[in-house]
Amino acid sequence: MERIACRTRDEAMAVFGSVVYAQRAGLERAIAVHHRRDSRFVMPGICRVDQAIVDFEVDRKWGAHQLEDGTWMPNWRERLECPTCGLINRQRALAAALLEHMAGKDGRAVYLMEQVTAMYKVICMRSPTSICYGSEYVGPQHKGGDVVRGIRHEDAMQLSFPDASLDAVMSNDVFEHVPSPDRAFREAARVLKPGGKMFFTVPFFLDRETNTQRADIVDGAVKHHKDPEYHGNPFSKDGSLVFTEFGWQLVSRMSDHGFADCYAEAFWSLEYGHLGLNNLIFVATR
Q1: pLDDT at 233 over 90
Q2: Is the pTM here over 0.85, yes or no?
């Protein structure tokens, strides 16, 4: 499996603009053409989370688009779901990176910015010797650490964990929905021990140097700078508002938030069910 660390736009564009990735694009298109009449199909591979041979499920959900010749191109990032662990492409890559970091380290504390999801259940199950915390954002009327109907409440901008109390933090497409992601990054650095790592994904604009603010909070109310955009939220039928679109400023400013290092890891593997030409997970070290 190929995994390449990128810290700048130029490094990433060299990777994704390479002949190898052009060949992979051709392969992905050939797969889509082969299944052009199938609204759903499976691809055999190995799930790194389950360490098992599975049939990854692909369909037209979550951003699949139709090409000029009528072929449906799946949104590989959001599909290739494992029938065993229930995680999609990017989630499996994120979970595998975290589990690799925690392996053989009994009693380590990890915090996931989710609790009612398959991801949380998988990490707890696959890392039984770790202390796993999970949470959801339940509402502004609650304090961090409050348990509401069995769900721990946390605000990413004001975590309730003590300083330097965690070995790892994981965030799965959360920071784009936080009104001030910079505050959330500083909080993640605060609660991590020296050498601790944060593993996260966000929707990312590979060709942009700077972040774009779609909305913010002014005098307690949401102020929109662009048309509102919402993503699915397993804890709310209304979805989650997107506040920020991220570019490479995300990586370059991590040192300002208290991290010693940060990089985007590009990954691709037909064998492990990691297709897609813009696959990235982010790793920040305290």
Answers
A1: no
A2: yes
